[in-house]
Amino acid sequence: MKIGIAGIGKMGHAIGTRLLGLGHSVSVWNRTADKTTGLVNAGAHLTATPKLLAESVDVVLTLLTNEAALDDVYSGPDGLLSGEVSQKIFIDMSTVKPAKPKEMALRANAVGAVYLECPVGGSVGPAKEGKLLGFVGGHSADVEKIKPLLDQLCKRVEHVGSHGAGSTVKLAVNLPLMVYWQTLGESLSLVEPLGIDPGRMIDILSDSSGGPNMLKVRGAMIAQTLQQKKSEQVTVSVSTMRKDMRAMLDQAEATQRQLPLTALALAQFNAAAQTGLDEKDCTELPVWWLAKGSHPTP
Fold it and tell me: Could you give the CA distance from residue 234 to residue 254 in angstroms, rounded to a whole number?
């Protein structure tokens, strides 16, 4: 199958690597072309514009930053939908507000194309191994056509409803983890006076009934950050977390639900962002809280 990928960040690169390994023909496009070098060296074809990408493949996967990026890449002058794309299938894996996939599906339908949303749960490691969780929104017949491809990328593919449903489920999946970053900082603040080695404490927490899978996967990185041996690696930035949490709160308001813990956690992360952490990795949040929390609020 000829597959295009627009948006070659960490996840786009990992998914591209997976598809090349499975023998697919992969074409790529990214605003910053040098980010495609690894995939091109591995056998992917570089295209100059999103339009040319869409016209040269059967299916396009998009992994973009936000709603504005979707508008630009899909509907710009040389956007994905600007050429001859009748019967082409577009699958967006970005995490956006649930209203956006509904809008994008109408744009694709207007030019005879198919649009599905499939935001995914999981990071770079699972992406390379085909072990993501896929939350699909769209028409059932379209989902069935493309499910064999999604099964190669995901260990579990859930068709959760029409357009917008996939984004809603992705936000719901992300919500407990977002809030956990704040609770982790507060938990560590309780034991800080004991002087326990950070690596040991993270190991204890990860082995407890309240420890999420994230601690088992990223515990070493968190401990390293707590020991002030910070890495410049950014897996999930604070700005990305804040974007997703704002989307959660917007969706809750739209459906007349209340998310008080999410709102409180976001307020703290907003404060962290103001100190310069916005583009830093989320593992720096507990360190920030320990410094902040050690001083009582006047």
Answer: 32
Q: At what angle do helices 238-254 and 260-272 cross, to 10 degrees?
A: 150
Model pLDDT for residues 187-212, shown as the tens digit of each residue: 999 999 999 999 999 999 999 988 88
Domains and CATH numbers, the chain: 2-162 (3.40.50.720), 168-293 (1.10.1040.10)
